[in-house]
Design goal:
The protein is α/β, with parallel strands linked by helices and 124 residues long. It has one domain: Transcription Regulator spoIIAA, CATH 3.30.750.24. Helices cover 36% and strands 30% of the residues. Helix 1 links the parallel strand 2 and strand 3. The longest helix has 13 residues.
């Protein structure tokens, strides 16, 4: 899974960036988060997340989408009271973050097309 996602923590803002590459399945999303949690890649002082899918595309079935917010809710120790911005390039890929956002509970997520807008929202 290491080639599916890369991480960068910005000390100055407290934002953890997660960059996705290639075709991304539900399994990729869950396994890369599991790896990040178990390998302690997510710093304790993380204020929010920016998930960048601009070099990726989703291969997720609509009936699988609810598993993403379920995962976040099961890991509120990591995602609780935090904002998760999702950057996509195409309208087709924006559908998934919109569907996830409707199920947010204990954290907030929102889709964006630009890094600037995502960062401004995460830090607000």
């Amino acid at each position: 899974m290491q080639d599916k996602a890369k991480y960068r923590f910005d000390e100055s803002t407290g934002v953890l960036y997660k960059y996705y590459f290639g075709t991304i399945t539900l399994g990729d999303i869950i396994s890369t988060w599991d790896d990040a949690i178990s390998e302690k890649i997510i710093p304790e002082n993380t204020k929010g997340f920016i998930l960048d899918y601009t070099k990726a595309n989703f291969d997720i079935k609509l009936n699988e989408v609810n598993k993403i917010p379920e995962y976040y809710k099961q890991h509120l120790d990591v995602f609780g009271n935090k904002k998760i911005a999702v950057i996509t390039q195409t309208p087709e890929d924006t559908v998934f973050p919109i569907l996830v956002e409707k199920k947010d509970s204990g954290y907030s997520s929102h889709p964006f097309y630009t890094h600037e807008a995502a960062l401004e929202w995460v830090l607000s």
